[in-house]
Write a structure and sequence with these properties.
Blueprint (H helix, E strand, L loop, with lengths): L1 E8 L5 E3 L2 E6 L7 H14 L4 E5 L5 E6 L5
């Protein structure tokens, strides 16, 4: 399953809005710390270990694949 994710600074629960998931993180945007936090939150939200950022590794808007079979 492909997800569109918007990353925002701050804390709070993920929000689903306009076919997009808004994830909040306090992690710094350096050395992949914010991306690691986003992946961790998606793993918890969907109860899976298979999460990959397909597009937007340096952007606040990301396309994330969740699941076993990579498209």
């Amino acid at each position: 399953m492909m997800l569109t994710v918007k990353v925002r600074t701050g804390s709070g629960e993920p929000i689903i809005k306009d076919n997009m998931i808004i994830i909040f993180t306090d992690a710094k945007r350096e050395n992949g710390k914010a991306n690691a936090d986003v992946i961790s939150q998606i793993k918890k939200l969907y109860n899976t270990e298979s999460v990959t950022i397909k597009k937007g590794k340096t952007s606040s808007r990301k396309l994330i694949f969740v699941g076993i079979d990579d498209p």
